[in-house]
Amino acid sequence: MQNFILDTNVLIHDPSAYRQFKENNVIIPLKVLEEIDQFKRELSERGRNARTVSRALDELRKVGRLSDGVTLDSGGTLKVLFADKDDPFSVGLSADDLIVKLAVDLQKVTPDVKCTVVSKDINLRLKADALGLDAEDYENGQHHEPDEMYSGQAVLEADAEAIGFFAKEGHAVIPGMDELSANQYVTLQNPNDPKQTMLGRYDLETHRVVKLITISDTNTPITPRNREQRFAMDALLNDKIKLITLCGKAGTGKTLLAIAAGFHQVMNTKQYKRLLVSRPIFPMGKDLGYLPGSVEEKLDPWMQPIHDALALIVHNQSGGGGGNKKGGDLLASNPLIDVEPLTYIRGRSIPNQFMIVDESQNLTPLEVKTVITRVGHDTKIILTGDLYQIDNPYVDSLSNGLSAVVEKFRGESLAAHMLLTEGVRSALAEKAANLL
Hints:
This protein is an alpha/beta fold. It is built from 14 helices and 17 strands. A six-stranded mixed β-sheet has the order 3-4-2-1-5-6. A hairpin with a 5-residue loop joins strand 3 (70-71) and strand 4. The two termini are 46 Å apart.
């Protein structure tokens, strides 16, 4: 049995964190409750989580005194303790120092029981380590590092006969495909002739590798420039795939591909009744006040990348003749294209729409769940993001909502994922993304 002392940021990140330590003792310092009390009035995700923690602890208080310890369902106990108030060295200490001091005092009282400080704050973990305490990050719900993330594609060896059959029939049974995830994209390559390749997608329902949607037959306004974009476009145009995650560094074409595919299926094929694009107005849930004008005018600075993408799409589709029309003008004049903040999505139902959530790496897993559960009948949702450009201080490359969706939906027949690695914006942008 061990003692785990939780920092405020752990409970803000996961309000149920205190239940994740099995049969061990979980200690919540009194200072942590004071910090949580300061956050609970906020309308942000941090405020909602703070209120959730407060309500949960109040329910446990009905079971017994938190100062004496309350037994949890996991078999462990939960206690709320504070550093010795009679100790003169406690006066004037910061919240982090009080947490560390409580851990030191607890370790002295129970030297035979290992005491570990759990925090998402690197500096607090460093302080604890400097004082001889064990310290660790809260890793429940974290996923792979960006470099280790599921890429959404694989290479399978296939002889000339199998590749020929695949090219003719549009599908084939390939050795090794049983190890693939649903809707994983594959490059069939002849080991005797590496230049002989075919691109396909593993269809879990038919247990076959099937050909990609032929882009030339769809008349999409944007043409994929590389294999990864070709895979992504197939998923974006596939009616059976309802959830798509596109990850990649700046300039790989994530947002442009998604908007181009949505524009095509709303304006040309009429597959969906509206193209809906959203981006987090960080922090999510914060009101759009303090900026003059209407909601649309407030959103304009945040949505400029969407305007740029729409302007490029219109320019390409018109053969270069529509280049003078701005993306913002298109939004204002076309009721089939809409840009909305995620702030107001809670409680809605969104049917028969092509929905894009850009910059979704800044969302928490709970926020992403809130967004996806808004999806109604016949709606397709695309999450795009760059795990190396996270602005939200409460998530990282391991704990953000985009990573959670990639991991949780891997293997689901209605979902697909593609990691884009090749920059296409410009040679300078590609070099900057790699070097800086």
